[in-house]
Design a protein that fits this description.
The protein is built from 6 helices and 8 strands. By secondary structure, it is α/β, with parallel strands linked by helices. It has 2 domains: 22-107, Ribosomal Protein L15, Chain: K, domain 2; 124-248, no CATH class. Strands 1-5-7-8 form a 4-stranded mixed beta sheet, sandwiched between helices. Strand 7 and strand 8 (98-101) form a beta hairpin. Helix 4 packs antiparallel against helix 5. The protein is globular, with a radius of gyration of 22 Å. It starts with 21 loop residues before the first strand and ends with a helix. Residues 1-9 and 220-256 have low confidence and may be disordered.
Length: 256
């Protein structure tokens, strides 16, 4: 009997590391605690887990810990550890709402607040929006390939148009048009249920028709104003979630 060699497990997530003074944890089951004077942080999705240990030497580069999600645990000792090194702890929910923010002693965060205020007028906000939506469209395109979409030229043209978008409304318009192509590709995907459940669900639930509202009959993509609701469409599609986008914004602004 020939022995089969299994390939080593490789996580699709990049390793945890401190970047520009920020350490970002994302996913479910986040964990932050202190053991023997060192901070232990863990995150991940399903079997894909990441972990990092930060000692007092590495803590000199740590300015803030960003937690993206609502699931997990954090110890009071870890909060005290962050306070002792002058690092802030920020928690952002999956919907992008700020859930918690600790302010270290003698915190001088005026440069960050100034950068956030000026991002709407100096072009930084548009640059960040193009980068975030570009990552989202890249994830959607990967899913379209998995779904067997044959013609991706229209989708690729929208990605090219996104690179030249100079306003947030233009970015939203590219996102909305790309969403129309993306979600229409799901119409050929059938939903499989257990046989005993087939008699309990309507037939229309077995296929994906469109994203049109059952109340208004209108699709949520028609212009830049209506496309604002598309930002949350990335959940469950392998695309950046709104919490990840919020973390990206914090990391970019922290460099200013």
């Amino acid at each position: 009997m020939q022995r089969q060699h299994s390939t080593p497990f490789q996580s699709p997530l990049p390793p945890l590391e401190i970047r520009a003074g920020t350490l970002t944890l994302d996913g479910w089951g986040l964990s932050c605690f202190v053991r023997y004077g060192k901070a232990h942080l863990q995150d991940g999705i399903g079997p894909h887990r990441r972990s990092i240990v930060v000692d007092r030497v590495a803590s000199n580069r740590l300015e803030r810990v960003v937690l993206l999600g609502r699931s997990g645990s954090i110890s009071l000792e870890f909060l005290g550890w962050c306070r002792s090194i002058g690092a802030a702890v920020v928690q952002i929910g999956s919907d992008g709402d700020l859930l918690m923010h600790t302010v270290p002693f003698a915190y001088g965060g005026h440069p960050i607040r100034r950068a956030q205020a000026l991002a709407l007028t100096n072009g930084l906000g548009v640059t960040i929006a193009r980068d975030l939506i570009g990552r989202k469209l890249a994830g959607q395109r990967a899913n379209l390939v998995r779904l067997g979409a044959n013609d991706l030229r229209a989708f690729d043209r929208l990605r090219e148009a996104l690179n030249s978008a100079d306003t947030t409304d233009a970015v939203r318009l590219c996102e909305a048009k790309a969403a129309a192509i993306y979600w229409n590709a799901w119409s050929d995907v059938s939903i499989r249920l257990r046989s005993r459940d087939l008699i309990r669900v309507p037939a229309r639930w077995m296929r994906y028709d469109s994203r049109a509202s059952v109340l208004t009959g209108r699709a949520p993509f028609g212009n830049a104003r209506e496309s604002r609701g598309q930002s949350g469409a990335a959940h469950g599609t392998g695309c950046p979630s709104s919490a990840m986008l919020g973390g990206k914004l914090i990391r970019v602004l922290s460099r200013q």
